Amino acid sequence: MPNASKECHLFLLDLINRGDVLAANGRAYMECVPTDTIYGIPLGEENVRVTITVPKLKGALLPIPTHEATFIEEAIGGFVAWPKRLVVVQTSLSQASKGPSNAPDREAEGKK
């Protein structure tokens, strides 16, 4: 059973516009192995276990439906498989705001 999760955006393929569309926000359990199962079905190499917290594209089909859920809003709070390539894990604000490690130290420059 997964133990560590990360906030993520879950996308679906948009075949009409030939891109990806944000389908939901959720939590991804990235430390899964292909033999882990959801409702008795192995995840496989290309998928990851996720929990949907906020559906963004109501009425959209899950990319990998289960016996319990076919649509995104039916899967809120439960586990579903999602293609890894369509999961974008969020970074924390503290990591995002640090900037590149080679950025000049403005405080050190002011002391010269």
TrEMBL record:
Domain DUF8039 residue range list: 5-89
User: Per the record, which residues fall in region Disordered?
Assistant: 93-112
Entry's Pfam families?
Answer: DUF8039
InterPro entries linked: DUF8039 (IPR058352)
Query: Which protein are we looking at?
Result: DUF8039 domain-containing protein
Q: Which species is the source of this protein?
A: Ficus carica (Common fig)
